Amino acid sequence: AQTVTQSQPEMSVQEAETVTLSCTYDTSESDYYLFWYKQPPSRQMILVIRQEAYKQQNATENRFSVNFQKAAKSFSLKISDSQLGDAAMYFCACRGGSNYKLTFGKGTLLTVNP
Amino acid sequence: DTGVSQDPRHKITKRGQNVTFRCDPISEHNRLYWYRQTLGQGPEFLTYFQNEAQLEKSRLLSDRFSAERPKGSFSTLEIQRTEQGDSAMYLCASSWGGNTEAFFGQGTRLTVV
User: Fold this and answer.
1) Which residues contact B62 (CB under 8 A, 6 or more apart)?
2) Ramachandran region of residue A54, left (φ > 0), alpha (ψ -120 to 50) or beta?
3) Residues A23-47: tens digit of each pLDDT
4) Which of B1, B24, B41, B92 to mutate to test the interface with A (most CBs of A within 10 A)?
């Protein structure tokens, strides 16, 4: 079983600045995957970035990167050079290696100010 | 568009009525998932299929809920005798295998009045 906690219900950032969204998790599995999903208003959820727990190197996708601290069970998302289109609800999620269901946090609503 | 498709996008129903939602996954995807998302919460897992077999059901899925995936293609989620607590966004997702990205549909928003 997994639990995912996002302690920031809302965050805001100025356009072109950098913002970090926090996530902590707990899992009983030794093999697991972590994800950040973006859900714009009235649009479908899309995957932003994923991290395999067995990989020590932090994942990076263009302006998005993670800080994966396995011992602390922390998985934060950094968005660099924020753009207006980044405004959305962001969900952190965890999936065990032996099952396929995602466990989500409650989400962080990101506002990007022009 | 070859993404995950859900129909209808919105459904308003009276308490006690039955409703059925449809999900068409990405065509080559063998795994299909249903999630429920209530206001202010992240999605919660309901059930998942591998091809036509329903392999796991959450305790959230009461006996009023039933899901099918005939022939391993599209899936339906039926809620019988709807209650106001069933009001939520119902999300469908699909993936190829278990270790690949799950793609989500736009969801069906159910309002029970």
Assistant:
1) none
2) alpha
3) 999 998 888 999 999 999 878 899 9
4) B41
pLDDT of residue A10: 97
Closest Cα to residue B94, out of B74, B76, B66? B74
Residue B99 sits at the chain A interface (C-beta within 8 Å)? yes
Specify the amino acid at residue B47: T
Instruction: Give the amino acid at B85.
Output: G
List of chain B residues whose C-beta atoms are within 8 Å of the C-beta of residue A47: 101-103
d(CA B40, CA A89): 10
User: What residues contact B13, with CB distance under 8 A and at least 6 apart?
Assistant: B19, B82, B110, B111, B112, B113
Q: For chain B, which residues score pLDDT lower than 50? A: none
Q: Verify whether the Cβ–Cβ distance B42 to A44 is below 8 Å.
A: no
